[in-house]
Amino acid sequence: MHQVSVHEAKTHLSRLLRHAIAGEEVVITRSGRPVARIVPIEEARPLFGVDEGRFVVPDDFDAPLDEGLLRAFEGRE
After folding, report:
1. Closest CA to 40 of 23, 53, 61
2. How big is the CA angle at 75 (ends 70 and 77), to the nearest 5 degrees?
């Protein structure tokens, strides 16, 4: 973990970002007290197929709604 002052952070932001990209945490201090952190972002990876088998799409999923339900959705009931 690196600790740097606000002034140093402003002066060397690109270098500090390289540290964060490399997996290091950078703490920014003001008057010797920690006030912020620069940390690497973990990239989200899509998890395709995680819910496979948990839901079955019915064959009539896109069939028209019955008239009573349609009126309720449209606020006509």
Report:
1. 23
2. 75
Q: Which amino acid is at 3?
A: Q
State both tokens at 28.
């920014």
CA torsion, points 12, 15, 19, 22, in degrees to nearest 10?
A: 160
In total, the chain counts a number of residues equal to 77
pLDDT digits (tens, 9 = 90+) for 17-56: 999 999 999 999 999 999 999 999 887 677 788 888 888 8
pTM of the model: 0.55
CB 38 within 8 A of CB 25: yes
Which SS3 state, helix, strand or coil, does residue 2 take? strand
